[in-house]
Amino acid sequence: MYEARCGGCHAIDANRVGPMHRQLLGRTAGRVPGYDYSPALRASGLIWDAKNLDLWLRDPEALIPGQSMNYRVDSAEDRRLLIGYLGSASVSAPSAARKAPN
Ligand code: HEC
């Protein structure tokens, strides 16, 4: 789901067209180092919790007018699954620390 719907622009551990998503939940919007956000998103001061993410994915422009993510997820069920996935990626250790046990 994440790869299919978001992977064209985002990755968990790399900035692409959109900013990386590692540890998104609980983070302030517009703060990934090295990513060139729209001034609107950077200035929003929003915290990415499940509620704000749901609003964002439903209609980014309604949540933060002037932002630059031109993509929506219309299905509430899809949003729920995506937010669950982003939450799980947020709580797991960063990839550098996630080595295979010996
Ligand atoms: C067409 C490209 C595109 C697609 C597809 C896309 N995004 Fe984005 N996304 C962006 C861009 C560009 C930004 C930066 C927006 C800005 O700076 O205003 C962004 C920003 C975000 C942010 C804010 C991150 C932060 O650090 O504040 C979140 C959260 C996000 N996207 C989630 C998603 C999810 C989840 C999906 C899949 C359902 C998705 N996006 C699909 C382009 C995309």
From TrEMBL:
Keywords: Electron transport, Heme, Iron, Metal-binding, Transport. Residues 1-90 form the Cytochrome c domain. The keyword Metal-binding applies. PROSITE patterns: CYTC. The keyword Calcium does not apply. This is Cytochrome C. It comes from Curvibacter microcysteis.
